[in-house]
Design goal:
The structure is a homotetramer of 440-residue chains.
Chain A: H1 3-30, H2 39-50, E1 55-58, H3 74-86, H4 91-97, E2 104-109, E3 116-122, H5 137-140, H6 156-172, E4 180-186, H7 195-200, E5 209-219, E6 224-232, E7 234-243, H8 259-271, E8 281-290, E9 300-309, H9 312-333, E10 336-345, H10 353-364, E11 370-379, H11 383-392, E12 396-404, H12 421-438
Parallel strand pairs in A: 3-4, 3-5, 5-12, 6-11
Antiparallel strand pairs in A: 1-2, 2-4, 6-12, 7-9, 7-10, 8-9
Helix pairs in contact in A: 1-6, 1-12, 6-12, 8-9, 10-12
Keywords (chains A, B, C, D): Manganese, Metal-binding
Binding site for Mn(2+) (chains A, B, C, D): 154, 156, 190, 214, 411
Protein name (chains A, B, C, D): Peptidase M20
C-alpha cells in the first residue's frame, strides 16, 4: 500500500469511527467505577476486544496480585462484585476479576518481524458525585453517572474510547503493520496503584515504543497536541489511622483519647509543611472520617493523604515531614498511630525523539492545528513506572496531551470535555504507529 | 389487702420476674437500634404490652412530628425500615412507625380516682461497634449485637426490661392501685431529641408524680440507690456543614476551597473554647466526615457537635462561642457554612420529697442496701423537658440512679452492667408507686 | 484597759489612720515592681517598720535562696537594681536584696506569754501597662504607675498599706496585747513563687493563728467581708522553650526548624486540654515570644504557661497533659524542648473557727455590714503553703476577703478599687488580733 | 592611557586594596545595625567618602521620608541614636540621620560627557544573635558583633567594603573615566524598605547603567560569578496586631478575648496557605510577641509576616489569602485586627547585555574562573525598584552574584563567607565600569 493512499484511508477510517467513539465514551461515562472495582468496565472492554480477535490477559494474568496497593475494603469489593453480577458480568469473568483484579492486557501479533509497540489507557473513575445541572452535557444528553457518588471526572471514559478506537484501527490496517502491539487497559490510575502490578508481570519488558497520554489537562483548543510532557510529580499515597479510647463526652471527658482531634491536628500540621527551595511540592488531606457519635469522644479516625514532589527527592522530603508529624500527633493525643503507603508514583521523562515524530505526523493531518514540543503535567501519573521500564531497556516512551477546552477542571463535579478530541487522539496515535513502521 | 401481705407479695413477684427481666434485656441487647430507628424495638415492646391489655399510642399519636430534631437521612431510615420488615414487623405497625416515628406510650387506668403517675424509659442504642471479646458478657453468653456498628452501650436495653417489668407489676397488683398510669417508652434520648415531641403531645400535662432514672452512671454496688439526681447538663446538639470547591490537588490546588481543613480548624478551635468561671461546661466534636478522595481538595465537610453547661446559661455561652468560631472558620477558608441545631436538653431539678419517699421504701426492702439522697449526673438527659412540664403544673418529679458495678464506662464498646440491678430497679419504682397510693 | 474603752479606741485609731492608708497605697501604686524585683518597695516598707522599732529580717534571713522559683533573667535583675539605686535605696539594703532577695519579715514580741500570730501581705505588681484614661482614678489623681509596663493591677498596693496600718496598730495597742507577732511582707505572689521560700526559713513553724486575705476578688459592697475562702486552685507555673534552626525564609525554608510554629501549635493544643469531670481546671498561655525577624525561620520560642486545678490532683492532670503535648509539639517540628516549673501553688482550706470569730468581731464594728461565712477564690494563691504549714502544726489559718466594688476585674489595665476598703481591712484584722487575746 | 597598561594597573590596584577591604569588612562586622538604625554605619561610610572628596547626600536629601516603610518604634530609634552619640557620631550628622534617615548617596562627576553609572550597596544587619564559637571566624579573629542580638549575617558588611573599594577605584582611575557616578549606600534592604524612598528622590531617573549584586547566595567557589540573576521574589512585609481584652486567667477566663491564641491560630493558618500551580510562593511568620504575664489572658499580640511570589501576581495571591485568614482569625477570637504593610519588593529582570559584558571582563581577569550567564536568587531584593526605574527610562541593569563557599546559609547565626570574594567583586564591577566607557 502506498503512503499517499494510506494517509487518505486513515482520514476515511477516522471519519467513520467518530460516532462510535462518542457512543463508547458515553456508555462508559454512565457506568463509572473506581480503582480496583472496574468490573463492568473491564468486562465491556474485553467483550469489544474479543470480538476483534485480540488475545486477552485478565486477572492475575494481567497483573501481579502482591504489587497492588490501596485495595478497597473487602465489603466494598463484595458490593461492587455483586452489582457487576447484577449488571450481567458472567461468572467466568467474575472468577478472574474478583477481589480487585481489574483491567486487562490485549495483544496483537502481526506475525511479521518489527517493533513491539505498547499503548496504555487508564480506565478508572473517581469518588465524586456528578453535578445534576442541565448545563452539564452528560445530564443534558442523558448519559450522566448511574453509580451514585462515582463519576468519570478525569476523562478516563474518553481514554477507554480512544483505546478501543485504536484497537479497531490496528486490526483495520493490519496488513500495513508489522511487529507486535500490546494494549494495556490499566486499572486504578487514580492513587497511583495500577501501573506497577502490570509492569511487574513483564508486559513492558521488551517494548520498543511506548505511547500513553491524556486529554485535557490544560484548557487548549481542539487540534492542539503536546508531543511530550514534563513535570510528572512523584507522589506517595498514604492512609493514616489513629486509634484512641472512647468515653462519654459529658460524664468523663478526661477518660477519652481523642482520635478525631488527632486527625484535625494532623491535617493542619501537614498542610503547613514548609515549601522547598528545590521545586514544586504538594500535600493534600483528601478524606477524613472520625468518630462514631456526637456524645462520644472519638476513638477512631482515618485520613487519606497524598504528597507530591517535582522529583522523587522532593516527594521523599514531603513524605518524611508528613511521617514525623503524623507520629508526633499520635503522641500528642496518646493515641495509636498507623501509617500505610497505599500508592506511589515516581517522576518521569519523555524521550525527545517524539517531538520530531509528532511534528511529522501533524504535517500529514488536517485536524492537528498546533504541536507543542512539551507541556507540563503538574500532577502524578503512575504511567511513569511503565515509561521508566521501557526506557531502562532501551525503548522510547512518550506521554501525549490532547487539547480540548475545559469548562471545569479535572476532578470537578461538572468536569466535561469536547468530544471532538476523541478522533484526533486516535488519529495522532494511529498515525504515529504507522509512522514508526518505517522510521529511519 | 393489708400492707404486710402486700410487702411479702412484692418480694415474691420480683423473685419470679427476675429471669424474665434478664431474658428481655438480652433480647433487646441483641437488637440495638439508634434514635428514630427503633422500629423492631418499638414493635417488641408493643406486642408485650398489648398482651397485657395496655392501651397504646404509637406514631403520631405518641409524639408530635414537627418537634422531632435530628432525624436521620431518608436513606438510612429506609434501610432501617426495610430491615424491620425483614425482621417481621407487620405492615400495620410499619405504616405508623415509618419516617422515624418510633417509641410508644402505654396507659393503664384503674378506674378508681387517684393520682396520675408517669414512668419514662428510654429505648435507643448507640452507633458503637460492640467489642468482640470473650471477657465481655454479651459475647460470652451469645447475646451480643446483631446490628453491626450499633450497640446498647448505655444500658437502655435494661431500661426497657425494667419498663416491661413495671407494666407487669402494675397489672399484677391492679386491685391494690387507684388512679392512672402512663408509661412512656421514649425514642432518641441520645442526642436529646425524643422527649420534647412526647411532651408536646400532652402526655405530661396532668401528671402528679413522675419517675424516671438510669442504671449505672457511677460505679456503685448492687443495692445502692440515689433518690434524686442533680447536675443535669443543659446541652445543644449541632450539625455543621461546610461547602467549598473541589479542585485537583496536584494540578491547581489554589483553586480549591478546602472544606476538610475548615472542619479540622473548627474542631481544634471549638475544643479550645475557654472554661467558664460560672461552672461546668463541655464541648465535643463527636463525628467528622470530610472529602471524597485523596487527590481532590475536599469540597464537603460535616461535623456532629454538642455543647453542655451546668445550667442553661452556661450551655448558651458554649453555644454562642461555638457559633462565632464556626462562622469565622467558614470565612477563614472561604467556604459556605451551615449550622443546624438537631437536639437540645435543658437543665433540671428533682423534687426533695423523693428523698424521704425512697428512704421509706428502702426500709421495706431486703435488697436496697443504701440510699444516697442525691448523686450527680454530669451529663445531659432530655427527661428534663418532662420533669419541668410536670413540675410547672404542680407535680413532683425525680430521676433515680440504680447502682451497679461498671467494668467500663457508658458509651464504651465493652460497656456492661450487672443484671442484678434489674429486679432492684423494678422493686424500687414498684414500691414507690404503691407507697404513693397512701402517702399522707 | 476595759473592752468597752478599747472598742472605742479602735474606732478612733482607725479613723485617724485612714488618710495615711490612702497615702501609702498611692505611693506604692506609683512605684509598682514585679516579682523578685520589689527592691524599692521592700526598702520603703522596711524604713516604715524600722521607724516603729520592728525587728526586721531581710534577704537570705527572710527567705531561702534555693527555694525561690521563677527568678527573672540576670539582666532584668541588674536593670531593676540599678533603677533602685538611682531611686535612693542605700547600698547596705541593696547588698542584702540583690539577685532577687526581696520581701521582708517583721517581728514584734510583747514580752508577755501568749499566742504567736502571723499576718501575711503580698507586695508584688504585674507586667501590665496601666491605662492612661482620666476616668481611671490613679490617672485622675496623678498617682499612676511611673514604671512603664508594670502596674499594681491586683491590689497588692492596698495590701502593703493594710500591712503597715496593722504594724502601727500593734505598736499602738501593744499594752493590750500579749504573745508574739510576725508580719510577712511576701514577694512574688504572682506566679506562686514567694511563699515557699519564706516557709522554708521557718517563720511559720510555731504559729498559732495565721491571717491573710485579699481585697476585691468579687465585686461586693464596702463593708462586706468573707470570714473564710475556698476554691484555692492548685497551680503550676511553667516556662517552655523551643530551640530550632534558623534559615532564610525565602531561599531555603526547608532548612529551618520552626520554633515559632512550635509555640503556636503548643498554644492551641494546650488550650484544648479536655475538661475534667472531677472539677474545675484552668490553662493559660499568658506570654509567647518567638522569632527574631520577619524573613528568618524562627529558631527560638518561649512561652509562659500556667495550669490550675480545684485540687492538687486536678492540677497534676493538667500538668501531665500539658507535658505530653509540649514534648509532642517539639517532636512535631523537630525542635529541642525545654520545660521548667517556675512556680507552684497547692490547694488549701480555711479553718471553720474563723467564721464565728469574724462574726463576733463584726458585731463590735460600725463598718462591717455583712459577713459571708465563705466565698470562693477561684484562683491560685501560694499563701496555701503558709496555711498548710500552720495547720500541720496544729495552728488555725484563714484567708479573708474584703469587699469593694470593682469597675474592672483583677489584672485589667484599668483595675481599681474603692480605697474605703483599706481602713475596714485594718479594722477587721486588728479586732481579730485583739479578740484572739482573750478567746476561750 | 592604553588599555593594556590599564589592565595591569587594575591588577596592581586591587592587590594593594585587598587588606583594606578585609579591614573595612571586619570593622563593619563588629558594628552591625539593623534597618533604619544604621547611624554609626552611615557615619563611618560618610567619613571615608568625604576624605575622597565625594559629594554626599544624607538624610532627607538621600531619601524621601514618607516613602519609608517599617520604621522601628520611637523608643528603639531613640536608644540607637543615643548609642550612636556615645559611639562618637557628631551632632551635625545625628541631626540629619535622626528618626531613621540612614544611608547615603555619594556622587562623582568626571566633568566629561559620558554615561551615568549607578552602583548600589546595602548596609543593614539582622536581628540575629551571633554564635559564640571559636570555629566561627569573627570569633576566632576577634571581630564578632559588639551589638548584642544584632549581626551581619547576610554579608552586607562585605557589600559596604566593596562599595568603599569601588569609590577608591573610581577616584584612583578618574582620569580614565568620563560621565557621572552615583553610589547608593542603601539602608533597610532587609524587609524591602530602603530602595523605594531612594528611588522616589530621583537618584535613578537618568541612569544609563545600573549594577548591584550580592556575595554568596549559592555556595560557589571563589572566582565564580553570575552575570545576571533571576527569580527575584516579589514580597510583601506585613505587621499584624490583635487587640483583645485582658482577664484573670483563673478567676474569670471567659471574660478574656485572647490575642495570643489569635496569633497562634493565624500563624498556623498562614503557614497552611495552599501552594499555587503558577509557581514559587513563600510565607513566613518570623516574629510573634503576645501577652504580658502568665496568669493574664493576653490582650495584645503582634506578628511580623512576609509573603513572597515568583512574580507580583503570586505574591498578591499569598497576600490576599493571608489577609482573609488574618481577619477571620480576629473574628474567631472576637479581637480587633490591624494589618499594616511595612515593606514591599517587586519582581525583577536583569538585561541580557550583561552576560556578554561580564564574559568580556572575565577574559581580562586572572581571578575570575567561571561566568554563569544567570543564577537564581530565590529571595526578595528591593533593588528591583531601582532596576525597574532604570529600565523604564531605557537604561540597563544587572544584579551580579559573587561566588564564595558558605559554611552556613544566609541569616544563620554562624553565617560567614570567604573574604577573598571582596577584591574579586571590586575587580568585576571596576572592570565593568571601565569596559562601559568604550562599549560599542
Amino acid at each position: 500500500m502506498k503512503t499517499g493512499q494510506l494517509r487518505y484511508d486513515i482520514d476515511e477510517f477516522i471519519k467513520n469511527l467518530t460516532s462510535q467513539l462518542v457512543s463508547w465514551r458515553r456508555k462508559f461515562h454512565q457506568y463509572p467505577e473506581i480503582g480496583w472495582m472496574e468490573y463492568v468496565t473491564t468486562y465491556y472492554i474485553a467483550k469489544e476486544l474479543e470480538s476483534m480477535d485480540y488475545k486477552l490477559a485478565i486477572g492475575t494474568d494481567a497483573l501481579m496480585t502482591k504489587q497492588r496497593m490501596g485495595i478497597p475494603k473487602q465489603q466494598l469489593l463484595k458490593e461492587s462484585e455483586e452489582r457487576a453480577r447484577r449488571k450481567g458480568v458472567p461468572p467466568n469473568y467474575m472468577t478472574k476479576l474478583a477481589g480487585g483484579h481489574t483491567g486487562l492486557v490485549a495483544q496483537w501479533d502481526t506475525g511479521r518481524p518489527g517493533k513491539h509497540i505498547a499503548l496504555r489507557f487508564d480506565i478508572d473513575a473517581l469518588p465524586i458525585e456528578e453535578v445534576y445541572d442541565h448545563a452539564h452535557l452528560p445530564v443534558k444528553e442523558g448519559f450522566q453517572s448511574q453509580n451514585q457518588g462515582w463519576m468519570h471526572a478525569c476523562g478516563h471514559d474518553g481514554h477507554i474510547a480512544i483505546g478501543l478506537g485504536l484497537a479497531h484501527m490496528i486490526k483495520h490496517f493490519q496488513d500495513s503493520l508489522s511487529g507486535r502491539f500490546t494494549l494495556l487497559f490499566q486499572p486504578a490510575e487514580e492513587g497511583g496503584r495500577g501501573a506497577l502490578p502490570m509492569v511487574k508481570n513483564g508486559w513492558l519488558d521488551d517494548v520498543d515504543e511506548f505511547i500513553s497520554g491524556h486529554i485535557g489537562i490544560h484548557s487548549l483548543s481542539i487540534g492542539e497536541v503536546a508531543a511530550t510532557t514534563n513535570q510528572f510529580l512523584a507522589s506517595s499515597k498514604i492512609n493514616v489511622t489513629f486509634k484512641g479510647r472512647a468515653a462519654h463526652a459529658g460524664v468523663e471527658p478526661e477518660k477519652g483519647q481523642n482520635a478525631l482531634l488527632a486527625c484535625a491536628t494532623a491535617s493542619l500540621q501537614l498542610q503547613g509543611i514548609s515549601r522547598h527551595s528545590g521545586g514544586t511540592t504538594r500535600i493534600n488531606i483528601g478524606k477524613l472520617e472520625a468518630g462514631s457519635g456526637r456524645n462520644i469522644i472519638a476513638d477512631q479516625g482515618r485520613m487519606e493523604i497524598e504528597t507530591r514532589g517535582e522529583n522523587d527527592e522532593l516527594d521523599q522530603y514531603m513524605f518524611n515531614e508528613a511521617k514525623r508529624m503524623i507520629h508526633a500527633t499520635g503522641d500528642m493525643y496518646g493515641v495509636q498511630t498507623k501509617m500505610e503507603v497505599v500508592g506511589h508514583a515516581i517522576d518521569g521523562t519523555c524521550d525527545n525523539e517524539w517531538v520530531k515524530r509528532v511534528e511529522k505526523v501533524a504535517s500529514q493531518s488536517k485536524c492537528i492545528k498546533n504541536v507543542h514540543p512539551v507541556l507540563p503535567l503538574g500532577a502524578s501519573e503512575d504511567v511513569t513506572y511503565m515509561m521508566k521500564k521501557v526506557q531502562n531497556n532501551g525503548g522510547k516512551a512518550t506521554y501525549l496531551i490532547f487539547g480540548t477546552p475545559l469548562v471545569n477542571g479535572h476532578h470537578h463535579q461538572a468536569f466535561d470535555f469536547d468530544e471532538r478530541v476523541l478522533p484526533i487522539a486516535v488519529e495522532v496515535i494511529g498515525r504515529l504507529i504507522i509512522y514508526l513502521q518505517d522510521e529511519k
